[in-house]
Amino acid sequence: MTSSSQQAFVACRVCGDKASGYHYGVTSCEGCKGFFRRSMQKQMEYRCLRDAKCQVMRLNRNRCQYCRFKKCIAVGMSRDCELLKINNLFYLFLLLFKKLKIIIYDYSNYSTNHISESIKTL
Ligand SMILES: [Zn+2]
Ligand SMILES: [Zn+2]
What we know:
This protein is mainly α. 56% of the residues lie in helices and 5% in strands. The chain contains four helices and two strands; from the N terminus they run αββααα. The chain has helices at residues 4-7, 30-42, 65-74, 80-120; strands spanning 21-23, 26-28. The chain has a two-stranded antiparallel ribbon. Strand 1 (21-23) and strand 2 form a beta hairpin. The termini are far apart. Residues 1-5 have low confidence and may be disordered. Residues 48, 50, 52, 54, 64, 66-67 line the site of one zinc ion.
């Protein structure tokens, strides 16, 4: 029984190539993952020359970026996974900032009290 390697084949939901894992919420290949990431980063605007009806397959997936990107969205790819990471970072930053603010607030409270006290003693 040596069929485990064949059973492990998972097709990319965008182009049907061998998926390398779960990317942007969808099982996809390295090519489509990279393509989707680049599209998001550069906020590319693609155009289709064939009425947006191209078949996106492994062999021709580079032919029409518009349809490939459309397919990425259609199968459920989303940058939310990435946004989540960014949100977490933002949240951490916010927490840090809050703590910092408390420290600054305490410090300024302390210093104003200190100053008013020193004014009193004058
Ligand atoms: Zn793919
Ligand atoms: Zn197209």
